[in-house]
Each structure stands twice: as structure tokens, then as C-alpha cells.
Design goal:
By secondary structure, this protein is of the alpha+beta class. The chain has two domains: 19-108, no CATH class; 112-165, Rec A Protein, domain 2, CATH 3.30.250. Helices cover 41% and strands 19% of the residues. Strand 7 and strand 8 form a beta hairpin. Keywords: Coiled coil. InterPro entries: L1_C, Transposase_22. This is L1 transposable element RRM domain-containing protein. Residues 2-29 form a coiled coil.
Length: 171
Amino acid sequence: MLDKLSSRVTEAEDRIGTAEGQLVDLNSRVVNHLGTRAFYRAPDNRGAHRADRALGPRPPADQRPRPVLIRLLKCQDRDKILRIAAQRSRENKGPIKYDGKPVLFFPDLSASLVKRRKEYDRVKTELRSKDIPFALLHPATLRITLPDGRRRFFQTPKEVAAFLRGTPAGT
């Protein structure tokens, strides 16, 4: 019973995209400025609840900066931002740039979902080495595009490994 409740809470967190941990305030002008430069207009000020840097020491100038977590009031805003960022990245054939540096957008995922997605790392490396196009879809489904254009979907890394070996899963 407790496992079932825990599973439902985790599933709800994945859908909602809750923020985790306590964060330090970041000036919201950065969010508006980034919105104007990356999306060609400033986001609605009522949409962002707060913007914070991830906890941790300030990295040296030659390393990547700390992530910025933006907590939005509506999940629709989050979905719209992620959709626009993906669209702009495709149009520009690369990530959105801010002062000449790439800015990447990711949804907040629960620890259990991150763990499930990380389980695919080994088979993703094998797929890359064989030049097989793939995508890791939400929540944790791997899609492989075959040379003839057909797509195969896998729910576990074991299924992918079995497919790559040419044996049916479960044997």
C-alpha cells in the first residue's frame, strides 16, 4: 500500500514538475532579459513565481555556470517555454544563445524518473556507436528509428539490448 502511494506521489511530481530544495533568490530582471533576447518578447511577469540559482559554489569563469531554476505559476507556461525553446533550437540548428553562449532548457524531473532515464545510458552509447538514431521520450521510453524509417519503442533498457542482439526480449 505504501509503495503504491509513493509511486502515485512520484508520478504526480513528474507531471507537475515541482521544484526541489531551497534556493537563493536571483534577480528576476535576468529572466525578463533572457525572455526578450531568446524569445523575441519578454514573458508575462505574472507567469514566473521566482528564479533561483541551483545551490553550490560559484564555478570558475572557464566552466559552465550554475543552472537557473525558474518556478512558474502555470504548468502550461513551462510547456510553452520548452516547446518554443525546442522550436528555436531547430530553426537555429543549435541551442538558443545568450551573449554568445548556449542556453539549454529542461523540465524538472523527480529523482526516480532521472534514475529510470539514466538506466538507458549504456544502450544509448551502443546506439551512438552504431549510428542508430534514437530519442529518449518522456517519461522513460526509448524510440529507435530504423533504416527503413520505421520506429520502435522500448520501455526498458533490457528490451533495447535484446533488440540490438537480435533476440526477443524476455529470453
